[in-house]
Fold this sequence. Notes:
The chain is α/β, with parallel strands linked by helices. The chain contains nine helices and twelve strands.
Amino acid sequence: MNRSLKLSVVQGDAFTFEGDVLVLKYAQSLYGLDKAVHMRIRQQGIALELPDVNDEVIIETHGSLLATRVLFVGVKPLRQFNYSEIRDFARRALASLTHKVPSARHIVFTVHGAGYGLDETEAFESEVAGIVEAVTGGNFPKSIEAITFIESDQGRADRLSKSLKKLLPTGSLLIDGYSSVSTLTAESQDTLRTAGYSSAGKPHIFVAMPFAAEMDDIYHYGIQGAANASGLLCERADLSIFTGDVMEWVKARIASAKLVVADLSSANPNVYLEVGYAWGCRVPTVLLVRETSDLKFDVKGQRCIVYKSIKQLEESLQRELQGLPQIIPHLYS
């Protein structure tokens, strides 16, 4: 009888979550959780040499966190760690554990991409697809029983749980080689086959807004939902998380966007800079404000949405996006 692999998304703390292996990336510099875990391990006096790109390092935690081991997977610098790289990261992680920890039963992954601005759903689907690719190809620890995605943010955990259920309605993947996905819907099979690989060719909007906690609900529920419902990836940039010339990355994402959506409510200078660059690149914009008095320049002739609630914003923006193919014929080309 064929076994199944259970996949789930759980809100929690990676430091206090049990598992045989916690999988982390090392993007040639330390950020967020991988930085905190590295510090905790070093504080325990454990020597750790971080991996180069395309290499992996496994280390025993000796109680410094509840996971028995940590696997650091060496990947490209963060600005180059996009959807296809996320898929490859997940596939490589399982393949590496085939030999490094063949007895691993419960493997813990974190969520990648959304924390620094990639489309949340597309990035997650790319990660799941990499895991499925490893399983269908037989490149995984043969004792595996469960994979958990641990996410500290409750809202994101809830959203990604729904995404996972859409891909894997039973929450499990049959361990049966290339027949593993045969019981899934045609839509799920297509997503798992292409996620990450085809992402670069999908149209995206760039959202210019402060990367701040008080803006998260506006972004996730007012803007991202409308964009995804219209067939567009939704991206933004956390200017504080990158090292090096972050503006080069921002400029590239704006220049390649089909549309820039900018929330001008806070009069943030970076947002105005990004809008100006979009206009210079002749990228269409939709401006968002809570009050018309928030506008600091004459936007006559520019598409502008004044919103009082997140739900109103989502509905208004979705109508705007659905009308754009007629106004901007190249939007979905």
